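Q: I'm building a small set of examples for a reading group on sequence design. Run inverse folding on the following structure and report the sequence directly after it, with nothing in between.
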C-alpha cells in the first residue's frame, strides 16, 4: 500500500469517527436551545445586587462585608455568569471575590455551578427550587449547603455546614437587594470590524 492510499484511508476514518462523535453529542443548536430553556427559571438572578453579609472565619469571628453580585447570561443565554464581591466595610477593600458559571447539561438533565474563589475551583451540582436554588460542596464526611430564596427583588442566601451526628452550623448569610440591570458579561463584545 502506498503512502497516498494510507493517508486517504486515515483521513476517511477520521471523518467517519468525527461524524459519529458529533451525532452522539447532538446538534449544537438543539443543545443550546435546551440549555436556554432550562435556565429560564433562574433569570430572576440576572442583574446587579447589593447588601450586607457575614461569614464565620476559621477563628470563630463573625466577619461582616458588603456583598455585591452581578449576574448575566452569556453564550446566547446558554450559561449564566456570576461575579460576587465582598467588601470589607472597615478597610474599604475587596475581602472576597468569586466567579461562577452556571450551566445545564441536557444529556444528564442536571445543573452545575463551576466556581472559582480564594484560589480554589470546583464543579458542584445546583438544584433550582420554586423560588431560588440549593447547591452543595461535598467535603469528605462534611457537606456545605448553600440555599437561596429570591423574591420581591430580595436575594437571601445562607450557608450551613452538615456533619454526621451533629446539628447544622450556619456559617454564612447574605440579604441582597436588586439595584439594577446589567449588560455584563455579554455587553460590550468586540465587533468584527
Amino acid at each position: 500500500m502506498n503512502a497516498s492510499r494510507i493517508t486517504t484511508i486515515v483521513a476517511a476514518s477520521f471523518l467517519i469517527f468525527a461524524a459519529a462523535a458529533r451525532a452522539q453529542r447532538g446538534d449544537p443548536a438543539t443543545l443550546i436551545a435546551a440549555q436556554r430553556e432550562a435556565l429560564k427559571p433562574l433569570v430572576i438572578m440576572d442583574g446587579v445586587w447589593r447588601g450586607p453579609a457575614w461569614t464565620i472565619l476559621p477563628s470563630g469571628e463573625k466577619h461582616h462585608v458588603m456583598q455585591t453580585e452581578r449576574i448575566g447570561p452569556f453564550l446566547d443565554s446558554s450559561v449564566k455568569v456570576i461575579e460576587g464581591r465582598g467588601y470589607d466595610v472597615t478597610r474599604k477593600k475587596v475581602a472576597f471575590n468569586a466567579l461562577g458559571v452556571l450551566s445545564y447539561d441536557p444529556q444528564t438533565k442536571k445543573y452545575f455551578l463551576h466556581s472559582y474563589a480564594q484560589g480554589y475551583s470546583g464543579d458542584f451540582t445546583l438544584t433550582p427550587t420554586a423560588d431560588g436554588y440549593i447547591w452543595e460542596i461535598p467535603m469528605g464526611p462534611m457537606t456545605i449547603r448553600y440555599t437561596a430564596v429570591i423574591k420581591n427583588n430580595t436575594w437571601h442566601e445562607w450557608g450551613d455546614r452538615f456533619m454526621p451526628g451533629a446539628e447544622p452550623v450556619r456559617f454564612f448569610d447574605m440579604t441582597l437587594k436588586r439595584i439594577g440591570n446589567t449588560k455584563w458579561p455579554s455587553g460590550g463584545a468586540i465587533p468584527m470590524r
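The beta strands are 47-56, 62-74, 79-88, 93-105, 110-117, 120-129, 132-139, 142-151, 154-162, 169-180.
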